[in-house]
Amino acid sequence: MRISTLLLLLYMPVFLSAQNTKIKVIKGLTLTNDAVLDTLLVSNTNDFLNAAQLPNESNKFVLPAQKIETYILLDEILGITTNQNSRETNFYKAHIINCIELEVAQYLLQVAYLSTSDSIPQLNAIFEIIAHKGSNGFLFSSPLKYNTLNWKIFTEQNTTVYFETDIQKNKVLDYTTFAATIDAKLKSTDKSTEFYCCDNFNEVLKLIGVLYKAEYAGIQLNTLASVADNKKLIVAGEHSNEFTDFDKHDLWHDRLSLVVPRNTLNKPVDEGCAYLYGGSWGLSWNEIFTQFIKSIPITEQTDWKEYKENPFNFGENDANHLYVDYVINALIVQQLEKQYGFEAVWKLLNSGKFQKGNENYYAILKEIAGVDSANYNAWVYGLINNKINNK
Ligand SMILES: [Zn+2]
Predict the structure, then answer these.
(1) Cβ atoms of 141 and 62 closer than 8 Å
(2) Which terminus of the chain, N or C, has fewer Cβ atoms within 10 Å?
(3) Can you tell me the distance from the alpha carbon of 356 to that of 118, in angstroms, rounded to the nearest whole number?
(4) What's residue 391's pLDDT?
């Protein structure tokens, strides 16, 4: 209802005259009923949204008590002014389109990112943020805490689950047990997780303060997450609102992200670990391997290095992709862990980001297991056959 009303408003030409990067307030909107406070609110909101285009940690306008809940929204605001087709970075401009006083010195703001193209109004996103007035001006949070004030809470070890009606507590126990085995491999301690169970992706977005985002139109199921200090926040909209299931593949990635930023790692090794420990797309590791040997010719001549340079998807479609090189890395991870312990896997994970020719990768593999680019194919062929024969 709210969004459709706003969409009607978008056709008012007064919206579309903004030319500078400063935030605009739509004509006729009452903010706080106090001119001095209005000026401060608009100025601080502008600063908060500009800082949203920088790393989250450097945004000085985030309410400290709700850091991680706000980071998950900031990740959605990042890049929102850019036109993805023309790459024009300042294409969409921020407009405050609504302001509601929630309680004394606390305001819920709705901010739309708008532009025009060939005289047609363009809406990129509408966000909801809460402005909290303190002694030095306003600080901002996402509305996640506010939107879930009446939700129930279940805590198991260092995982806290927020839910609306009921959850399967034994599944939460499975989750924390599996998380603990991964943490033990990663020598990761004192990490906590907060988990919100939503019906679908639309609920995820609304809870964190994304009322509309053009790039998400039509997406039914998805999960968003953020990290701050030793805590991971997961707002899940894929596995029902009752914690009936969770994805072990994603859990591997989640636990790893609490130790090191994943974008610094060698992705095929990261995905290989995820296949081995958690399967993929609901398939177990053994099911993936069975599909792999049915789909890919496995001979002494097969060039496994080539699959590394040019990723090949043997999954059913693009969405449920399964990559040959990820399977090979799963086998390598299994072998290294068995022979040398997880420390060897950790070294290979940290061999650096993918680079053409994979020199960095082969150098670490040589150091750990004496395998280099010259004997890689023969070694991998042996690992595949070992796995086939052990079945
Ligand atoms: Zn993955």
Answers:
(1) yes
(2) N
(3) 42
(4) 53
Distance 278 CA to ligand 1 centre (A): 9
pLDDT tens-digit readout, 202-237: 999 999 999 999 999 999 999 999 999 899 999 999
Q: DSSP states of 342-359 as a string?
A: HHHHHHHHTS-S--TT-H
236 CA → ligand 1 middle, Å: 16
Q: What is the model's pTM?
A: 0.83
Output the CA 222–ligand 1 centroid distance in Å.
14
In whole angstroms, give the CA distance from residue 385 to residue 46.
60
Amino acid present at 54? L
Determine the CATH number of domain 3-143: 3.10.450
Give me ligand 1 centre to Cα 128, in Å: 30
Gap from CA of 350 to ligand 1 centroid (Å) = 16
**CA separation for the pair 250, 253 (Å, rounded):** 5
Distances in Å between the alpha carbon of 4 and those of 123, 128, 208, 212, 219?
12, 15, 20, 11, 19
Round to whole Å and give the CA distance between 74 and 216. 16
Distance from the CA of 20 to the center of ligand 1, in angstroms?
41
Handedness of CA 304, 305, 307, 308 (dihedral sign): positive
Distance of CA 335 from the midpoint of ligand 1 (Å): 20
pLDDT digits (tens, 9 = 90+) for 131-151: 999 999 999 999 999 999 999
- For residue range 318-337, list pLDDT tens digits in order: 888 999 999 999 999 999 99
Q: How far is the CA of 338 from the centre of ligand 1 (A)?
A: 22
Cβ atoms < 10 Å from Cβ of 9: 15
Assess contact for 22 and 49: CB atoms under 8 A.
Answer: no
Distance, CA 253 to ligand 1 centroid (Å)?
Answer: 7
Read off φ and ψ for residue 223, nearest 5 degrees. Answer: -130, 140
Domain limits, the chain: 3-143, 152-259, 267-389
pLDDT at 12: 39
- CA 262-268-271 angle, to 5 degrees, is 70
Q: What is the pLDDT of residue 263?
A: 87
d(CA 113, CA 123): 6
